[in-house]
Predict the structure.
Amino acid sequence: MSQLILDNNVLLQFVPNVLKSVQGETLLFDKIAPHLEVAEAWLTTTFLSEAVLTELLPVLDNANNKLLHYARMAVVAEAMLHAVPQLDLVLTPNGFGVVSNTNIAPASKERVERLLLSLEKMRDDTLSILLPLLANTEAWATSDPCQYFMQTLYPWLDLPRKLGSTDHSWQRYQELHSKLIAIEERLAHDFFSCELLATLRQAELMGKWGETPSAPHYKRAWRHIFAIELYMLREEGEVPVPSCIEVVNSLRNAPDGIFEEWKQSGTAALFENHGYKNDKRKGGYWF
């Protein structure tokens, strides 16, 4: 049983245009209860974490709790997305039939498809709001979902929109997330170091840029590196080397105490001036 959606009254807060059930009819809550349970398990594993879910349970009566509100909305949207294709079908001894009566006709295939797209968009838009709320929750910081979103410089779910995609945003985000991991591994090895990128990822997701004199330097580096990553996503992995070198030079020339993660890394050693000198005993010269 779902722990967030406790009854039909809570469920109907997030499902518009539902006719009131008369005595003897099965409530919508009872019809989709298994889907609600599965949806909550999915949301907990992928976003909330068990720790955050546990913290939400004592505040189920607090209608002003934003995290609870959007968690419930996401559960209902995900459950309905999977339940809708079954709601107008009944299983008879002779096979499946369509629920109908003299007053209400079954929805067309096109209307049902639009409803499914609407539910998916509702879920995805809700997840986009939910993620920053989770990032401000102390119990979430050590969770597996947090570690997933901290794998890239841009954890936010509007990433597909930056590349011109507006539909199926959660599905598209997951595809881009995998690509970004590969891109960042390459950039870390060749230019920016794993240590610096780890610092930038945590600062962006957890909002830990701070008010120190070094904060603008780190924020600027994050913006420049993320712009490089967007370019690589658009250009199928092509590395804009001049842009990368420009960022590297800004890291090298930063004041002492800034970008020490990079300056002390093995990646930084690749850009050291090794002071090559011509040797008369060798057969060739470099000019």
